[in-house]
Amino acid sequence: MASDMILYWGAGSGPCWRAMICLEEKGLSDYTSKLISFDNKEHKSDEVLKINPRGQAPAFKHGNVIVNESLAICLYLENTFKAQGTKLLPDDPAQQGLVLQRAVESQNIREKAAFGVLSYFFRTKPEDRTEAMLEEKKKTCHEELQVWEGYLAKLGDGSHIAGKNFTLADVCAFPFIATLVRMGFNMSRYPHLAKYYDLVPAFKHGNVIVNESLAICLYLENTFKSQGTKLLPDDPAQQALVLQRAVESQNIRDKASYGFFWRFFVLTKPEAMFEEKKKACFEELQIWEGYLAKLGDGSYIAGKDFTLADACAFPYIAIIVRLGFNMSRYPHLAKYYDLVKDRPSVKASWPPHWKDTPNKDVLKDI
């Protein structure tokens, strides 16, 4: 049904994510997906400009119909395929007005919260940044999020952005909230927003909804035990080790990859804090270096076989390599990275935008 649809999208783009969520919710997952690289200026290519003269993504075409701008794409899909998939726009005029209001209003999350703070750091030279401007950006961010926290508090636990059902308002708002969470934003000040983030399913299999990456991995292993790679051994002691390493891998994320990179480079700290982050990073990686050294060359995180522990740990190690971290101090971790990176499952799931863009070098001198 969607074979005559094509979507040009860029990784990490909230507006692109909106269109992709909508396509999935309407049961149109067989559309042609064209990933473009913003770094390589592919959004300014002739192929994209024929559809969107502004050279922006998302750019969408359905047969002879061209629609640009994420909200317009979502509305087009909802109105064209009303009878299938999730109903994203209610019939009741008052409720429809609220959904559309929140959908348009969600742009404020992007401009004042997600990009407002982040773009200041990524687009402003360090020598041009000021503490006063940072405080102003942070104040604007918190004020905006407090507005949405209030909306959700009024609706009550278990609610979506505009009521009890997932609607176009969620399609538009969720990607920008997810961007903040992805960047390590502390949501503890916004308990209703945090609950809302957890409410939107990350994984769905039939009527089963599972959130949190480890829970998803365990569900897949337990549901499909008899096929593919056995990710959880039967031996209780070995299974416990695999699960320990799987849970423990969160420390690589918090202390080495995201904890060190995002919370330092996005929220600039004094030199003393920088040194503290480096120390925590090195200490954490040394623990994993020790685990692998004890197991010997050619081993995976929890033994001779690839397991759930590797599925959990490898992505965070790959991130720091991607960011140019010097692995020479950790020879066993470096060998482990080389061992796992060429597995078919890893190659198939490698972040698409990593394939066509060079590694970053922000951590090369760390």
Which descriptors would you attach to this protein?
single chain; alpha+beta; two-stranded antiparallel sheet
Please outline what is shown here:
The chain contains 16 helices and six strands. The chain is of the alpha+beta class.
Kindly describe this structure.
The chain has 366 residues and is of the alpha+beta class. The protein is 56% helix and 7% strand. It contains 16 helices and six strands. The longest helix has 25 residues, at 131-155. The protein starts with a strand and ends in an 11-residue tail after the last helix. InterPro entries: Glutathione-S-Trfase_C-like (IPR010987), Glutathione-S-Trfase_C_sf (IPR036282), Glutathione_S-Trfase (IPR040079), Glutathione_S-Trfase_N (IPR004045), GST_C (IPR004046), Thioredoxin-like_sf (IPR036249).
